[in-house]
């Protein structure tokens, strides 16, 4: 026989445990009118007779009076159980009280936590809503009107909200209306028929891939780790600069119930020391040529030698001229005597 596993999720006091007992046809989950959750850990049990194939997983309630730390522990415990023992899980039953008329912020946060815990394609096809405390003694006309409002108003609100947050495709959530704790002697056949419809819906579903279920915080929807490096000068000399580089991290946290993020303090996770040597200074030598006049004695000697050279050259030119003149005159005389 194929198993059909159902996971009950809802706020403390909304009747998850009573619904689980009603489905299984036996009292296995603790029930109390006390505002504190009677379910402090994830519990599970099979049904009997014609519901022996039904396996119900009861979970601690959201928004429990024991505080956030207990809530975190409950959620982590639930996820760990689902990943370990939840193979074959088919349906998620969101439990709401019939007198709940508004799509409150608490319900919105619960829906978002469920969505983040099950980041699975097509997940919402596995989700239904069971309205508990839908008393069997309510007049039929009152029931029909209230049921119609729930089916139209809540379905639209839930789908719009889910589309805003996850971009999921449009679906209509199956809704069932149950009095899971009827008074003795009251006709509760309507609730029995609703449970049969719920089980028929669940049996047709394919199993959820429980390996993709993730732990999620109940306060912060997401936490982003920010990092940066901080450099501090330790010492500086003519030859080198010594600095310390601190690697810092902090958390950027987005709460379910707030639009603006909050930040944790920066924390140093590692430090390194860095030494930077300055380049050595190189001295460049440039040869400079400077003209200086020679000493006066050498200068006078040079002038004297120049004057003597010029005088000798003038005398040579004069003598040469005389020789040329003599030869020319002599040639003229010879020519004259010949005639």
Q: What report would you give on this structure?
A:
The chain has helices spanning 16-24, 68-85, 105-117, 140-166, 189-203, 296-338, and strands spanning 4-10, 43-46, 54-58, 89-97, 127-132, 175-177, 220-236, 240-255, 262-263, 267-277. It has two domains: 4-212, P-loop containing nucleotide triphosphate hydrolases (Rossmann fold), CATH 3.40.50.300; 220-277, no CATH class. It is of the alpha/beta class and 339 residues long. The radius of gyration is 52 Å and the shape is rod-shaped. The chain has a six-stranded mixed β-sheet, with helices on one face. Strands 7, 8, 9 and 10 form a four-stranded antiparallel β-sheet that branches. The chain is built from six helices and ten strands; from the N terminus they run E-H-E-E-H-E-H-E-H-E-H-E-E-E-E-H. Helix 3 packs across helix 4 (140-166). The model has no long low-confidence stretch (mean pLDDT 83). It is found in: Membrane; Plastid, Chloroplast outer membrane.
Question: Could you give a quick summary of the protein structure above?
Answer:
By secondary structure, the protein is an alpha/beta fold. The chain has 6 helices and 10 strands; from the N terminus they run βαββαβαβαβαββββα. The strands form 2 sheets. Strands 2-3-1-4-5-6 form a 6-stranded mixed β-sheet, covered by helices on one side.
Chart the SSEs and their pairings:
Elements: E1 4-10, H1 16-24, E2 43-46, E3 54-58, H2 68-85, E4 89-97, H3 105-117, E5 127-132, H4 140-166, E6 175-177, H5 189-203, E7 220-236, E8 240-255, E9 262-263, E10 267-277, H6 296-338
Parallel strand pairs: 1-3, 1-4, 4-5, 5-6
Antiparallel strand pairs: 2-3, 7-8, 8-9, 8-10
Helix pairs in contact: 3-4
Main location: membrane
Subcellular location: Membrane; Plastid, Chloroplast outer membrane
Organism: Entamoeba histolytica
